[in-house]
Write a structure and sequence with these properties.
Layout lengths: L2 E2 L2 E2 L4 H17 L5 E4 L5 E2 L2 E2 L5 E6 L5 E8 L5 H4 L2 E2 L12 E4 L4 H9 L3 E4 L4 E5 L4 E5 L19 H12 L6 H8 L3 H13 L3 E3 L5 E4 L1 H11 L6 E7 L4 H8 L6 E4 H5 L11 E5 L2 H8 L2 E2 L6 E6 L9 E3 L2 E3 L2 H9 L5 H14 L1 H4 L2
Parallel strand pairs: 7-9, 9-10, 17-19
Antiparallel strand pairs: 1-2, 1-8, 3-6, 4-5, 6-7, 10-11, 11-12, 13-14, 15-18, 15-19, 16-17, 20-21
Helix pairs in contact: 4-5, 4-7, 5-6, 7-11, 11-12
């Protein structure tokens, strides 16, 4: 059985019922004539006697080859808890931690399990299992949100307060304390503490036993935040056309005095090798006034300019002026591109690759 904090978990009937239900889900996804069954407690495995507390399942191939899977049922499992899943001493030399079964596993928890090579099944149908002998790989996609989510407090990075806090955590190389975070993100310390607990549970940050922030996994946090707060929800979007073309528009931006910042492909191209874009996207506090001042015409066809009135000013955080034009920070450009249509996600990956190599440049 899997162990947590180096203590064997006492088997309970509901654990066995959960495991049995999960194995039923797995059986539905196995190739024809493959079988998986829960073994009696205390039975032998390949001549080796294992502890009575160990839950194991036998996976059998059509050619009569088989292997025993070490299985654990978890009523709940979050990414941080995955770190404590280790093989018990008696399992040394076996396949070790093979399969976790739970009612529901979040996407981030699934990613952590795959990184450790641990298979999983949840009762919504999310499945991943890779076994060398006999060779088998199974993957299936179930629910993307917890079916009983309403029974628990909301756990989300949606909203303007979360956006500002995420940007500070991503852009700061040396993580500040709770009060400094609250001051910089312009939110109350209590909200910061609640979000930090969520991020710690999701293994997006590390804290000391005394709660001091030690490390931020900026890339995973950036991807998670972008998923929960996609570009389309960042503010009010309006489309325009500049019949004279983008080159002339970029030149005119150099003399614009109102607050703005270019994002999207054109911003990303300032750091990463990205092909030229036919659409210029920028944030501005008053789209109509900005468009009139810069000489744009509203349109629904032939658009080459998109103006976004942001719901919150954090999108301007870390903006940089290059050749007279203001651009959003690399992290904001990535967040916008990851959930943009067309080549946006691919361009985001190019910029993320640059960010990995140049943290000292863009992280304060």
């Amino acid at each position: 059985m899997l162990i947590s904090d180096n203590k064997l978990l006492t088997p309970r009937l509901k654990d066995r019922n959960l495991i049995q239900a999960g194995l039923g889900k797995l059986q539905q996804r196995l190739p024809q004539d493959w079988r998986v069954e829960l073994l009696p407690l205390g039975s032998q495995s390949g001549g080796q006697v294992v502890p009575e507390a160990a839950n194991r399942a036998r996976l059998s191939a059509p050619d009569k080859r088989w292997t025993d899977l070490l299985v654990d049922g978890k009523a709940r499992l979050d990414p941080r808890m995955v770190r404590f899943l280790v093989a018990p001493a008696w399992a040394t030399g076996s396949q070790g931690l093979t399969l976790v079964i739970a009612p529901y596993l979040s996407k981030s928890t699934q990613e952590e399990l795959r990184e450790k090579g641990i298979g999983y099944v949840d009762l919504s149908g999310n499945i991943w299992l890779s076994v060398r002998k006999p060779g088998l790989f199974v993957e299936a996609i179930g629910a993307s949100e917890e079916p009983n989510r309403e029974d628990r407090p909301a756990r989300t990075l949606k909203g303007q307060k979360a956006g500002g806090l995420c940007r500070v955590l991503i852009d700061r190389k040396a993580p500040p304390g709770v009060r400094a975070l609250a001051l910089e993100a312009e939110v109350d310390p209590g909200y910061v503490s609640r979000v930090l607990r969520l991020l710690e549970d999701e293994a997006l940050i590390d804290r000391t036993p005394r709660g001091v922030l030690e490390r931020v996994d900026w890339e995973k946090l950036l991807r998670r935040w972008a998923q929960e707060m996609p570009f389309g929800k960042r503010g009010t979007l309006a489309t325009y056309i500049d019949p004279r073309g983008l080159a002339g528009l970029v030149d005119r931006l150099g003399s614009e005095t109102s607050r703005y910042a270019v994002t999207g492909s054109m911003a990303a191209s300032q750091w990463a090798p990205i092909a030229g874009t036919r659409l210029l996207t920028l944030y501005t506090d008053d789209a109509a006034a900005f468009a009139k001042n810069i000489g744009l015409r509203p349109t629904e066809a032939g658009t080459n300019v998109m103006l976004v009135e942001p719901k919150d000013g954090y999108v301007y955080r870390g903006s940089e002026r290059r050749n007279g034009v203001w651009y959003v920070s690399p992290s904001q450009a990535v967040a916008d591109l990851l959930t943009s249509p067309g080549r946006g996600p691919a361009e985001a990956e190019e910029l993320i690759a640059w960010m990995r190599m140049n943290e000292e440049v863009w992280r304060a």
